[in-house]
UniProtKB/TrEMBL annotation:
The lineage of its organism: Bacteria, Pseudomonadati, Bacteroidota, Cytophagia, Cytophagales. PANTHER family: METALLOPROTEASE (PTHR11851), PROCESSING PROTEASE (PTHR11851:SF224). Transmembrane segments: none annotated. The keyword Signal applies. Pfam families: Peptidase_M16, Peptidase_M16_C. InterPro entries: Metalloenz_LuxS/M16 (IPR011249), MPP/UQCRC_Complex (IPR050361), Pept_M16_N (IPR011765), Peptidase_M16_C (IPR007863). The keyword Signal applies. Keywords: Signal. Residues 198-377 form the Peptidase M16 C-terminal domain. This is Insulinase family protein. Residues 1-20 form the signal peptide. Residues 74-176 form the Peptidase M16 N-terminal domain.
Length: 680
C-alpha cells in the first residue's frame, strides 16, 4: 500500500511539473509529415493504345480494374441527358447474357461491376479475377442496348427531373452552372423533358461506337498482382479491343463576370433561400495553386470550424451550415460558397458571405488557421489511402495530368510545407470578390428588392433559363381572377349547387399503389382516407368546429391554428364560398408556373388561415395550390361533372414524397347523401 502511495505521489508530481513546463497558450509545433507509402505504379501500353497502370497492393487478396476514357466534355444539345444513359444501358445485357444473368454471375463471385459514359469498374477476390474480367469485357465488347431498358431509364429520369424542378438545391445548382458556364457549354446545359424524350437506342449505340476506344483509355489495376501477370491478363482480355479515331472538342473559356450579378429563381412557397456565391476559376490538378487551394478552402468553408460556418451558423444563427468549394478541371474550375438561410435574413447572409470572401482575399489567413487546416487535411488524406480506388485514381491522375511520379508520395510534405504567404497568394490568384455571381432560390416577393443592393437582379426559371417576361392585365384584381375562375368552370351558381361530393383517386408511389378517398360537404365538413392494399394508413376528419388526424391508428386532435388551416382546405371549390365565409382576397401578381403565366391569389380566412392558389392567365382555371407544409398540388385534365369543370388529375409535389405523386380521379359522385358516419 505504501509503495502504491509513493508511486501515486511521484505520478502527481511528474504531471504537475510537466504541466508547468508546457505553454498551453499556443498550439504545439507540428511534427514532420508522415511518410506516405504508395506503391510505385508500373505502366505499359498495349499495341491498340490502351495504357495500363499497375499498382501492387498485397494487403488483401483482392484486385480491382478501373477503366477510364479520357475524352473531351460533350455538348449534348437536343440530346442532353444521353451520357447519363450509356453506362446503365451497357450493363443491361449483352449479346451473350441478359441483365439478370450478369447480375447473378457478379453476385455469385461476390464482385462488383459498374459502368458510366466514361468509365467501367470491376472488383473481386483475386481468385475470381478471370471470371470478373470475362464479365467486364463482355459488357465492354458486346452490349445489346435493349429498347425496354432505355424506356425504363427514360421514365426514371423524367420522374427524377420532375422532382428536381421543385427541389431548391437542384434549382440552385442549375442556375449557378448556367451563369458561370453558359447554356452553350457542356457544364451549363441542362436536361429537359424534351431532350430526354429525344434520346434513342441508336444515339446510345453511336456514342458507344464513337468513344469506347482503347487509344483514349487507361486501365488501372490495383491489387495482389505482379507486372508479368498484369501484362498477360491485359493482353488476354483487352488486346483485341479495336482502336479508332475519336473526335475532340474546343469550347470558349468562361470568364468572370464584369461586375457582381444576382440571379433569382422565384419559389414563393419557400421559407428558406438557397444562396450560392460563385465564379469560374482556372485551376487544374498539378497547378501551383492546387494544393494551397485545398487549405484555403478548408479555412474558408471546408467544415464546421471554417470561417463561413462559424459566422453564419454559430455567430448569426442564419443557417444550419455554410460551406465553400474550390474545384479543379481541365476546361475550367469553379469557386462556390453556399448555404440555405431563413427568408428574412437572405440579404444579411449575402452580406456575411461577401464579407468573409473579401476578408480572406484582402487580409489572408492566420498561422493558427493554417495549422488546423493542415492537420485536418493530412488526416483525411491518410484515411483515403485505405481505399484501393483512391490509389487507382492517384495513378490515373499522374498519367492523365502528366504529374511527377512522386506527386502523391510527397503530397503531405508539400501540403505541410506551405506558408501563410503562399495560401494568401493563392486566394488572390483564384478569387475575385468583385466579380461573382450571387444566386438565390426563394420567395421572390420577399427577397428581390433586398438583393438589388448587390447588383443587377435577373430572374430565371427553375431550369436556369431567363424567366419569361410576363405582362399582367392592367385592371386585374384578385376578385376578378376568382370571378374568371368560377366563370371558366361553369359559373358560381353551378359551383354552389355542388353541396356534397365523394371522390376516389388512385396513385402510385415507387411502385406502390395508393387509394385516396375524400368526402366534401359545403357546410364545412370534410374527410379523407389514404389506403395501401385496402388498409387505411392515414385519415383526417373536419367537423366544422373540430378535427383530427390519424396515422396508422395513432390519432391526434387538431386545435387552434392547425384546425383553422385544415378548415380552409376542406372545400372542393372554396372560391365559390368566399363571400359567405367572409374570406378576403389578395393578388400577388403574375407568376410563371412551369411555363404557364398564372395569377397568384391568396385567399385568407378571418382566422388568419390562408390558401395560395394560381390561376392560368389564359383559361382562368386553377392550376396550382401552394402549401409550405404539405407541398404543392397541380391541377390538370379538367372535365365537366354536373355542369362544372373539375380537375381529374392532381399532381402532388412534397418534401415528404420521394417523387411527385400523380393521382387520377377514378370515381366521383356529386350531391350524394352523407351521414355522420362519413365524418368519423
Amino acid at each position: 500500500m505504501k509503495k502504491i502511495a509513493i508511486l501515486f505521489f511521484f505520478g502527481v508530481l511528474t504531471a504537475a511539473t510537466a504541466w508547468a513546463q508546457v505553454d498551453r497558450s499556443k498550439l504545439p509545433d507540428s511534427g514532420p509529415a508522415p511518410e506516405i507509402n504508395i506503391g510505385d505504379a508500373e505502366v505499359f501500353t498495349l499495341e491498340n493504345g490502351l495504357k495500363v497502370i499497375l499498382v501492387q497492393n498485397d494487403k488483401l487478396p483482392r484486385v480491382s480494374f478501373s477503366l477510364i476514357l479520357d475524352r473531351d466534355p460533350l455538348l449534348e444539345g437536343d440530346k442532353a441527358g444521353l451520357t447519363g444513359f450509356v453506362g446503365e444501358m451497357m450493363t443491361s445485357g449483352t449479346t451473350n447474357r441478359t441483365k439478370d444473368q450478369i447480375d447473378e454471375e457478379v453476385d455469385f463471385i461476390g464482385a462488383s461491376l459498374s459502368a458510366s459514359s466514361t468509365s467501367m469498374f470491376g472488383s473481386s477476390l483475386k481468385k475470381h479475377q478471370d471470371k470478373l474480367l470475362e464479365l467486364m469485357t463482355d459488357v465492354l465488347y458486346n452490349p445489346s442496348f435493349p429498347e425496354e431498358e432505355l424506356e425504363r431509364l427514360r421514365k426514371q429520369t423524367l420522374t427524377g427531373l420532375a422532382t428536381s424542378k421543385d427541389n431548391p438545391n437542384a434549382i440552385s445548382s442549375r442556375l449557378a452552372a448556367a451563369l458561370v458556364y453558359g447554356k452553350d457549354h457542356p457544364y451549363g446545359e441542362v436536361e429537359t423533358e424534351e431532350t430526354i424524350k429525344n434520346i434513342t437506342v441508336a444515339d446510345v449505340k453511336n456514342y458507344y461506337e464513337t468513344f469506347f476506344k482503347p487509344n483514349i483509355a487507361y486501365l488501372a489495376i490495383v491489387g495482389d498482382m505482379q507486372l508479368d501477370e498484369a501484362k498477360a491478363i491485359s493482353e488476354k482480355y483487352f488486346a483485341n479491343w479495336q482502336p479508332g479515331d475519336v473526335p475532340t472538342f474546343d469550347y470558349e473559356k468562361p470568364e468572370k463576370t464584369d461586375m457582381t450579378m444576382v440571379g433569382l429563381v422565384d419559389r414563393s412557397s419557400s421559407v428558406q433561400t438557397v444562396i450560392n456565391v460563385t465564379q469560374p476559376i482556372e485551376l487544374n490538378i498539378g497547378d501551383e495553386d492546387y494544393i494551397p487551394s485545398r487549405l484555403l478552402n478548408q479555412i474558408l468553408g471546408g467544415g464546421s470550424s471554417s470561417r463561413l460556418f462559424m459566422n453564419l451558423r454559430e455567430d448569426k444563427g442564419y443557417t444550419y451550415g455554410a460551406y465553400s468549394s474550390i474545384s479543379s478541371d481541365k476546361l475550367i474550375g469553379r469557386f462556390s460558397a453556399n448555404a440555405s438561410v431563413r427568408t428574412e435574413v437572405t440579404d444579411s447572409a449575402v452580406v456575411e458571405f461577401l464579407h468573409e470572401i473579401n476578408k480572406i482575399v484582402d487580409e489572408g489567413v492566420t498561422e493558427e488557421e493554417l495549422q488546423k487546416a493542415k492537420a485536418n487535411l493530412s488526416g483525411s488524406f491518410g484515411r483515403s489511402l485505405e481505399s484501393p480506388s483512391t490509389i487507382a485514381n492517384f495513378a490515373l491522375n499522374i498519367e492523365r495530368y502528366d504529374l511527377p511520379k512522386d506527386y502523391y508520395k510527397n503530397y503531405l510534405q508539400t501540403l505541410n510545407g506551405l506558408s501563410v504567404d503562399e495560401i494568401n497568394a493563392t486566394a488572390k490568384n483564384l478569387i475575385n470578390p468583385d466579380k461573382v455571381y450571387i444566386t438565390a432560390v426563394g420567395n421572390g416577393d420577399e427577397i428581390k428588392e433586398k438583393l438589388a443592393q448587390f447588383g443587377e437582379v435577373k430572374v430565371f426559371d427553375n431550369m436556369g433559363f431567363p424567366a419569361k417576361e410576363l405582362t399582367a392585365d392592367a385592371d386585374m384584381t384578385a376578385e376578378k381572377v376568382v370571378a374568371n375562375f368560377l366563370q371558366a368552370i361553369g359559373g358560381k351558381e353551378k359551383a354552389q349547387a355542388i353541396k356534397t361530393a365523394s371522390m376516389t383517386m388512385n396513385a402510385e408511389i415507387m411502385g406502390t399503389p395508393l387509394a385516396l378517398d375524400m368526402v366534401f360537404d359545403a357546410s364545412g365538413r370534410y374527410s379523407q382516407k389514404t389506403s395501401v392494399g385496402g388498409n387505411v394508413m392515414q385519415s383526417s376528419v373536419i367537423n366544422k368546429d373540430s378535427g383530427s388526424v390519424s396515422v396508422q391508428g395513432q390519432s391526434m386532435q387538431l386545435s387552434g391554428q392547425q384546425l383553422e388551416d385544415a378548415k380552409i382546405n376542406a372545400y372542393l371549390i372554396p372560391e365559390a364560398w368566399v363571400e359567405e365565409l367572409g374570406y378576403s382576397l389578395e393578388l400577388e401578381g403574375l407568376k410563371d408556373v412551369d411555363g404557364t403565366p398564372a395569377y397568384k391569389v391568396i385567399i385568407s380566412a378571418p382566422s388568419g388561415a390562408k390558401l395560395v392558389n394560381y390561376y392560368d392567365q389564359n383559361t382562368g382555371l386553377r392550376i396550382k395550390n401552394e402549401n409550405a407544409a404539405s407541398g404543392d398540388t397541380f391541377y390538370s385534365d379538367y372535365q365537366e361533372k354536373n355542369g362544372v369543370l373539375l380537375p381529374m388529375t392532381w399532381t402532388i409535389k412534397s418534401a415528404m414524397l420521394p417523387v411527385p405523386m400523380e393521382a387520377k380521379v377514378t370515381n366521383l359522385n356529386i350531391n350524394v347523401e352523407l351521414t355522420d358516419e362519413d365524418f368519423q
